[in-house]
Amino acid sequence: MTLRLVVDQSAWNAHVQRVASALRPVVPVIKGNGYGFGRSVLMKHATEFSEEVAVGTVYELVDVPAGT
Q1: In the chain, at which residue ranges do the beta strands (DSSP E only) sit?
Q2: Phi, psi for residue 41 in degrees, rounded to 5
């Protein structure tokens, strides 16, 4: 059986922005497969509201943009 998850991107982005704004400062953690979204996709979102981003292992550093 295949399961497909569809995410309302606008609603998800708004929720993340609300939570991050309410809890500042935050340090997002990007690990594993990016919770199904992909680490590189989540990294772009994380760097919009935080200057620091944590990863789970050194192997996941490949998705951190230069200068972050």
Answers
A1: 29-30, 54-55
A2: -65, -50
Residue 37, amino acid: F
Burial class (CB in 10 A: 0-12, 13-18, 19+), 42: buried
Amino acid at 7: V
| Distance from the Cα of residue 44 to its chain's centroid | 7
pLDDT by residue, tens only, the chain of 68 residues: 898 888 898 998 899 889 988 988 999 988 888 777 888 888 888 888 888 888 888 888 887 777 65
User: In the 8-state DSSP scheme, what is residue 34?
Assistant: T
3-class state of residue 37 by DSSP? coil
